[in-house]
Amino acid sequence: MNVVFLGPPGAGKGTQAARVSSCYGIPHIATGDMLREAIAAGTELGQLARSYVERGELVPDEVMLRLIEERLRNPDAEKGFLLDGFPRTLPQAEGLDALLDRMGRRLDVVVFFRVPTPTLLRRLGGRWICRARGHVYHEDHHPPKVPGRCDLDGSELYQRPDDRPEAVARRLEVYEQQTAPLLEYYRARGVFREVDGGAGIEEVTRAVCAILDTVGREGSR
Ligand code: AP5
Question: pTM for the whole thing?
Fold first, then answer.
């Protein structure tokens, strides 16, 4: 199953992808996580990406398309993938279609997480991330058992530099200008589905799984 999670910053794409990808046996591919890992490791990609990411701007399309092509050609993505944070511009969406075409594949579903802006602001303001493996917490909705420590690996929790209010404001602007047009793009292709991403974490997981189950059944007919 080839799946895209689409939605504004803080919509819960990463939270839900981490909960559902293993149930469907597909890798969770989060371009934001890939860029943050490259930044932390100081690679050439990381050095290029740092200033864009920290200011809430998008990394150039050609860089992202190269990165995603390399990742989708990895054997673990042969049976499917769950993309989180990609595509987020029209050229990226067109580039993804062209790449999948060359690979003899196509997207099965794009799940859009609809969340009101005040909710997004509260989620991003209270988000904490684990330093070792990127597990995501929220100080009110999903707090760790021990404050400041990851439940799963005990590593330190930190707040992302792009969750500062000025970077968040820019990310929301960039989303409206460059990513929101993808809703129409995918509606026109008949693969668009929507969930109420403003609901609680469990409820959103149930809605997402209901969509993926239907798509899986249709695909196996
Ligand atoms: P990226 O890491 O992709 O950030 P984003 O799209 O802004 O999304 P977030 O990770 O902020 O939010 P999310 O929807 O995953 O929410 P989460 O589950 O964490 O990208 C970062 C940067 O990298 C970009 O700004 C750009 O610079 C660059 N980049 C990445 N991809 C790129 C691309 N394709 N092209 C160009 N540049 C690119 O949830 C948020 C919080 O809410 C958490 O604390 C969570 O616990 C809580 N929460 C989640 N769901 C719920 C719920 N249902 N109820 C209550 N709380 C909830």
Answer: 0.95
